[in-house]
Design brief:
This protein has 366 residues and is α/β, with parallel strands linked by helices. It is built from 12 helices and 15 strands. It folds into 2 domains: 230 residues, Type I PLP-dependent aspartate aminotransferase-like (Major domain) (Aspartate Aminotransferase, domain 2, 3-Layer(aba) Sandwich); 123 residues, Aspartate Aminotransferase, domain 1 (Alpha-Beta Complex). 36% of the residues lie in helices and 16% in strands.
Length: 366
């Protein structure tokens, strides 16, 4: 089976982890601090807080900016459920906005009409590794005095108009799940230039407890155990040193697909806007005839190709249906989610594997 995504681990990664296993620190030690320093540099910001998952990063980001019951946050339905789930976890209400049909990111032209007196923040997602249209989204956020949170779980290593992802919002969240740009097993982070938000997130990450000048634990807030271990951080540091290479390889694989699909009229290829450098987290095509999508997916799986779906619209999940979501349909999101198929993409994907995948699609459509 050719998986849709997978981690890329080499001997240097293994050596770095083994070195940490033999050190005095397995958690709450120097490896985490080293990883955070490199993360901040990669994102072009002053501060980074490493945490246990991308979901934990979202939860802490939402808590740090003070989101609470009654607050509304405008976000995209084309994302993994965690983006919206953590809004519900802090009591806020996700307000979904339709997507663009070129990048499949939130449609910035439709955001402003959704703003109400209860809107507190915008939570945008860089789908498939391509940054959202942050210039316009930032303008809207500042005009209406809203907080801007960027879920960049897909886009570490990407850039927007020459600026690194991480430096484009008040808070940026990352994920280091094995299929992401870099892997720590499970893990995530929050990036920011705001010192107050940084200190709040750092506090909430570890039970809301800090040590006073006598080394005594003092709890000042209701926090969580969202810490990242030194073992994970050691792997993350080693992976981060190869980030640029990983993103180049992902871009190369996307170009192979583009070359292979020349003349295939039955699918719509993903697009990258000229001012974006994508991290190419996933490669998503759309089938021009949505009724054929599931049949094509079954065929690809039988051929040993790990095709997937990213994503069913968040509001279509049964849990969200029970909450009353889904009554309002979004034209672009509906069209996208009914016609999308994710094809394999990761740094070690071979040219011959891309050729095989493309050949299977051509044969099926023939």
């Amino acid at each position: 089976m050719i998986p849709y995504g997978r981690q890329t681990i080499d001997e240097n990664d293994i050596k770095r982890v083994v070195k940490t296993l033999r050190s005095p620190w397995l958690t709450q030690g120097p490896a985490v601090l080293e990883f955070e320093k490199l993360l901040a540099k990669a994102g072009g910001v002053k501060y980074a807080v490493a945490v246990s998952s991308g979901t934990a990063a979202l939860h802490l980001a939402y808590l740090a900016v003070g989101l609470k019951k009654g607050d509304e946050v405008i976000t995209t339905p084309n994302t993994f459920a965690a983006t919206a789930n953590m809004l519900l976890a802090v009591g806020a209400k996700p307000v979904f906005c339709d997507i663009r049909l070129d990048t499949y990111n939130i449609d910035e032209r439709k955001v402003e009409r959704l703003i109400t007196k209860r809107t507190r923040a915008l939570a945008v997602v860089d789908f498939a590794g391509q940054p959202a249209e942050m210039k316009e989204i930032y303008r809207i956020a500042k005009k209406h005095k809203l907080l801007l949170i960027e879920d960049a779980s897909h886009s570490l290593g990407a850039s927007y108009r020459g600026r690194s992802v991480g430096s484009l919002a008040d808070l940026t969240t990352l994920s280091f799940h094995p299929v992401k740009a870099i892997a720590t097993g499970e893990g995530g982070a929050v990036l920011t230039n705001n010192k107050k938000l940084y200190e709040t997130i750092k506090l909430l990450r570890s039970h809301g407890i800090f040590k006073d000048n006598r080394g005594k634990n003092v709890m000042v807030a209701l926090g969580f155990n969202y810490r990242m271990s030194d073992i994970q951080a050691a792997l993350g540091t080693s992976q981060l040193e190869k980030l640029d290479k990983f993103i180049r390889l992902r871009n190369q694989a996307s170009k192979w697909y583009e070359e292979e699909f020349v003349g295939l009229e039955h699918i719509i290829l993903p697009q990258t806007l000229p001012h974006n450098y994508s991290a190419w987290h996933i490669y998503v095509i759309r089938v021009k005839y949505p009724k054929l999508r599931d049949k094509l997916w079954r065929y690809l799986v039988k051929k040993g190709i790990g095709a997937n779906f990213h994503y069913p619209a968040v509001y279509t999940h049964p849990y969200y249906q029970k909450l009353g979501y889904g009554k309002k349909k979004f034209r672009n999101e509906e069209l996208y989610s009914q016609s999308c198929i994710t094809l394999p993409l990761y740094p070690t994907l071979k040219r011959r594997e891309v050729h095989f995948i493309a050949s299977c699609l051509k044969e099926w459509f023939k």
